[in-house]
Structures are given as C-alpha cells and as structure tokens.
Amino acid sequence: MNPSAELAAFAAGLRFEHIPAAVVRKTEDLLVDWFASAVAGKGARPVESIVRFAAAMGAGEGASEVIVTRGRSSPYLAAMANAAASHFAEQDDVHNGSVFHPATVVFPAAVAAAQALGASGAQLLAAGVAGYEVGIRVGEFLGRSHYKVFHTTGTAGTLAAAAAVGNLLGLDAQQMRHAFGSAGTQSAGLWEFLRTAADSKQLHTAHAAAAGLMSAWLAKDGFTGADRILDGPQGMAAGMSSDADPARLTDGLGARWATAETSFKYHASCRHTHPAADALAHVLREYRLQPQDIARVVTHVHQGAIDVLGPVTDPVTVHQSKFSMGTVLALVARFGHAGLPEFERHFRDPDTVTLRDKVQMALDREVDAAYPRRWIGKVTVHTVDGGTLQGRVDEPKGDPGNTLNRDELTAKALQLASFSGGASDEEMRSAVERLWHVAAWPRVGRLL
Amino acid sequence: MNPSAELAAFAAGLRFEHIPAAVVRKTEDLLVDWFASAVAGKGARPVESIVRFAAAMGAGEGASEVIVTRGRSSPYLAAMANAAASHFAEQDDVHNGSVFHPATVVFPAAVAAAQALGASGAQLLAAGVAGYEVGIRVGEFLGRSHYKVFHTTGTAGTLAAAAAVGNLLGLDAQQMRHAFGSAGTQSAGLWEFLRTAADSKQLHTAHAAAAGLMSAWLAKDGFTGADRILDGPQGMAAGMSSDADPARLTDGLGARWATAETSFKYHASCRHTHPAADALAHVLREYRLQPQDIARVVTHVHQGAIDVLGPVTDPVTVHQSKFSMGTVLALVARFGHAGLPEFERHFRDPDTVTLRDKVQMALDREVDAAYPRRWIGKVTVHTVDGGTLQGRVDEPKGDPGNTLNRDELTAKALQLASFSGGASDEEMRSAVERLWHVAAWPRVGRLL
Lengths: 448, 448
Prior knowledge:
Chain A has helices spanning 3-13, 21-40, 45-57, 75-85, 103-117, 121-149, 152-169, 173-184, 200-220, 236-240, 274-286, 303-309, 318-321, 325-335, 340-346, 350-356, 365-370, 406-420, 425-435; strands at residues 64-66, 71-73, 294-301, 359-363, 377-383, 388-393. Chain A is α+β, with helices and mostly antiparallel strands and 448 residues long.
C-alpha cells in the first residue's frame, strides 16, 4: 500500500474502541475548546458575512446546527458557517509540529455530519480523532516550504474534514481514498491576505470544512478521486511543496496519537507569541516585577516568529495586535494574561504602547532548531535598575506537558462566550457540562 | 495600479455597450454551446452525484435553474450543479492560449446569478464577457508550469466566475478586487485524478463556479480579500507557478477581446487530441485511405499533449478514452469524427483498440513553440504498403479561423441533447432559437 492508501484505510477503519482512554479524554477537551471558539465567533464581521451567505444559499432547516445564529441548515452549509466562526478569536487549538489548527476544520464538519446522520457521541469522537490524525500528518507531510505560501489549515484541512465525515459515513478504505482525492484536489488557502489584513482566514476554514464534507458525501455516493492525491506526480505535494516527506503520512499510525499532541491556546494571540509571553510571565512572577520595572525585553525566537510577527510594529486593529509580540508581552506584563478582554480594552492604551515598544525579537539558534516540534520560550528582561534577568519556558501553557485542565478549559469557554455574547454564562456552563459526557450520548443533538 | 487591480477594475466596469457587436454575437454562440454541454451532462454518474449533493444540501426552491433536473435551487448550488454538468461531455469550449475552458465555469455562475438577480440578457452577456476576459488572462498569466500540475479551468475558474458574478452584482473596482482575493485563495484543481480516471474534472468546475460566485457575493457584503492575490509574494503565482507573467493579466484589456478567440470543440475529446485528429482526417480524405491501410501513425505534438495524454495508454472508461490520443485517432479513422456516440459505442471495439495501439506521440519543436497560441496538427501516417504520408492542419475545426456557424452549433446542440436525453429535439431547438435573441431579453428566465 502507498502512504495515501494506508492513511485512508486507517481513517476508514478507526473506531471508538481502538482509541486509548487518555486520547478520548483529550478529544473531549478539544471538542469543548472548539465549541467555545465557535461561540466566540458571533458578531465578528467576516464570520457573519459567511453565515449570512450560507443562510441565503440554503434551506433554513435541516438537522445541523449553526452555532452563532442558533439556526439550522444542511450539514454542508452548517459546516461552512461553524468553521468560519471557530477560527476568528484566535483561540482555537493548534498542533505544533504541523502548524495546523485541527479543531476549526475537523469539528465543524464532524458535528454537522453527526447531527444529520444521528450518530452517537462516541462515533463523533472517533470521527474527530480520524480527522486530527489525518490532518496533522498531511500538514507534517507538506512541510515548511508549503507553509511559507499556503495556510496549512486551509489546505490540509480539506482532507482532515473528509476523514472525519468519511469515518462517520462508514466509508470503506477505497471510498475514503476517493474522498481524499476529492478533498485534496479542492485544497486551497494562500497567506497573501495577511499583507492587507483581509478576511480570508475564516474563508479558508469555511472552505476546508465544507469541501471536505462534500468530498466524503460524494465518495459515499460512488464519486471517485485520485488514488495518490498526496504524493502522486501531479498531486498536492507536486504542486504545493518542495520538501514533502511521504513517511510523515503514516508515521506511527495507530500507535502515535497526534490528536493528543495538540495544544490549547491560552493567550488570545498568534501562537508564535505564546512561548515568550509565558517566559516573561515567569520572570515577572519569579522576581515580583511590576511593568514599570521593565527597561527592555529581548525575546529569543525561531525564524517563523520573525517572519509572521516582524511586519507588525504598530497594530491598528485588535486582530492585528494579536500578531504583535510587543503588544502581547505588554498585556502579559500588565495583566498576567493576554486574553480577549485584555486585547479588546487595552491593545492601544498608552501604557501598553510604551511597554510594547520596549520589546524586541532576536533569532535564537536553540529555539529555531527545536521548532516546530518544540516551541521554547526564552526572554531576557533588562530592568530599570540595571539588572538582567533570564526567563525560560520549555512548554508554553496549553502544550501537552503543560495543558489546561477542565476547570481552566471551562473558564476559557465562559470567557469566550461572554466576550462575544454568543451564550450566557449559565447556558455555556450547562453546554460544557453536557459535553464532558459526550462519549455516552446516544445521539449528537444540538450543542447549544 | 498593479495588474490585479487593473483587471478587477475592468471586470467591474465592463458594460454591454462597451462590447463590439461581433464579440456579442460570439458570446451568444458560446452561451448556446455551453447550454448544450450542460444538457449533455444529464445522466452521467459523476454529474448526477454532484447534482444530488447540491439538492440534498439546499432548498429545492430558489430562482436558479438546475438544468439536468429541471429543478430550482439557490444560485450557489445551481452554479455547482450546472458547472459539473457542462464539463462532462468534453464538448465545452476552450481558449487555446490559456488552455482554459471558460464556458463551464463562467456561465453556470453567471446564469444562476442572473436568474436570481433578475438581470437582463444584455447584462448576462456582459457578465459572461467579463468572466471570459478575466479567466483567460489569469490562465495565460499562470503559464505552462502551472498547467503541468494544475487544471487551469479549476484554478483560474474561481476568478472567472467571480468576475462574471461580480459584474452582475454591480461590484465596484475595490469590491471586485476583494472578490478576486477570495476567489484566488480558494483556487484549486490537480491533474492527479487523470492517472486513475477519477471523477475530479467535474468537481473542479463545480468548485470553481460555486467558489467564484461565493466570493463575489461575499464581496458585495463587505468581505475582503487579498489585494494582490495573483502576483503577490504569497499569492497564486508564488504558490502554483514558476513562469507567471504579470503582463498577461492586462494584455490588451478592452481592446483585445479574448472571448472572441475562444474555440468550439468539434470532437468530443480532450482538446489536445483535436489538431492531430483533424490532420489525420485530412490525410485519410486526401489519399482516400481506409483504417486497414494504416500501419502506424505518429502525431507530432506539443509537450502539454504528452503530459496530459501520455499516461492514458489503455483507457477503461468512455471518459478516460477521451484522453487517449490513440482512441481518438482510431475513431476518426473509422468514422470520420470522434463525437459522443462514437465514443460511447466504439471506444473499446477490437478495431478501435487495434488502431489505437498503432498511434504514437512525438514531441515536435515547431508545434511546441507555437503552443499554446496556436494548436497545429501534424501527423505522419505509415501505410501497410510502405508509404509515408504527411498531414497538417493549422487551425483545427472550431478555432476562430475555422469556426462552427450557427447551423453547426445548433446541430451540435441537438446531438448533445439527444445523446443524454436531457431535452427533446423540439425543446432543444426552441431553447436554442430563444437563446439567439438573449441580448434582447428583459430578464433571464429559465433556459429549458
């Protein structure tokens, strides 16, 4: 079997009972965290545009939930709407090694399909794991050259969504391969939009979830796709990567659970800022420093951080400020945490701007060499009294070795819902409470 | 203005009265020819799969016509269904220089939007021209390196559809640029499916028409896209081409009408086979040869033909046989024309297979240098009695200098409808007759 076929067979054959209990628990955590991000998208202009489009082009009925409107639609259009919603707040999960955001493409498709098909909670979790395992490996396979131009969450995301929905539809291995073929040939998403702060990020996830779901649905109906869409001579890697490694596609399938390697986002900012943010928080706590004690901060970072964050020197929007290393560290210094309310209320305070301009980035060989497998945080803080303090974090908050527990995930979910107004505290608390028991649900019903 | 902006401004500003009368007539011809191809998709398995998916995910009502079911849907899902339908018979039009099939991505989106918006026939024609002019130039821009891996009709098609629908929606130049950004960042379609004769070709056009329409619709609602999706440092060319030429994007805008350069397909096969097919037909007529007189045929072709057709040595489906140079030439030798009935009934006859295996392709410097601006057909026929005959065609049948007239287009339309059973002779004749007067329609209603 070639790697595409092996990966497809795995995605088709995965069942709830094959998944270790710890991975199931983690998947429940990821589902709750995704749900909160979807609720957090309510009211965001680009999200509401896509939600309006989906409503205008669909039925206004159907078994699948549109989370931000509390309406219903077909699984295809609900997946589109919920995927747009869950990628706006920059709080959805990330897999470090693949630089891929699995939840926002996998769960919108899986939940919409599960609701339409009357699947059980256990089936939804298994489908989610199938989506994560596939999407993460495809992202790793496509490599760093791909990520330089393509938004991996959009591109690998079509296959991740197809794997999840195909698993729910009970595709056999050959049908799953066809679903991969159809998903991969719709794979898309370019970073160019970042240059002018355009809205494409949510379009990429909407597209990936919807196209992936469509691919699985078509495969169930006998529609065929390329056999080797990933590594064939005119496949995804041939067109969109120069360092693709087919061995990554099947790396530890069924033994290594990539799902469990996924990180939660603690700060509401670009993940590239998190290691330094945590290292700074550590220094401030350790030495009991106040913001006014800081003369200068040097963050020792990987090249990817400089590439993505470097251009953002004077952010003018909340969303852009999440890509400003200085702003994130200033908020952490002032409030201990850079969450949604901190950004919204304080991203351009004079105190924030003053601190922001004291932060520099410097390329660090150790940090760069460890990336993307490990995201090490290192800072040097120069104090106003002439001191020099070092801070280091080997696993930023939210990484598997330093994860968020269920209380922290619940608190984050409540904060996200309250921020967007997508659900009341009481509703959200009850929805999250129910979701902790998803593995026992006989049918996946509405989440809200 | 950069080229992306200039092209967007042209697409936004184009009005019916700007278009020369001869180009309007040609666009009417292209619309009729597209309509016939859409009718021809009825009953084809991959088409019916996509049509069923669109029906399952939508409303079953709406102002836009689904041609093969005679049902109705939203413009988004109708565009998806009709685009799948019109690219199946391999009889839809092609622009030589860009190796791009404009009709099957432009008209499904434009007609569906026009029906939903209550646009006039003149507005539909102007939108069609906007789509053709943009799509063809984007295809030319992306170049030969792109076409080696990507199906240009799928990739450039998202922008073509966005231009057409954006023109109908009355987008201003900036909104059109945003529509281009959203369309380009969804641009997708890989040739890998050909290797195993998978169904992706119709998925590519369905995807392009639907994603392009969505992009224009979102732009009207304020959704933004990258400013330089085509030629920016992380745009389409950066990710998917190594020989892109930005000058092609604006080549002769408003003076050179690329729409009028579009070719009709005479044979029901991949366009790369047509020049050789016509050259062979010429030799057979000229020297009054019979199939049994042929010992061997060498077709002297451009590299693109070898890339696309080379892998197809023993086609097992009708659709795959349309990408087999040997099969096409065998049918031409046996029947004088490789039309839908010839493929359907004879693609695997022993006589066809015997002839097929006598056909070789050889790269020809002159043909390759002229390509893609001119598609020259050259064949050498070795006869069983030891003779060697040369055949040459400088413009294959259907090219602008050797075009199909309205009687021939009508006859082709009737044949397509009768082949699929998509419409009776009488219905088709009356639908085509009405379409010749589309420029005078106050509103675009149902075509069937």
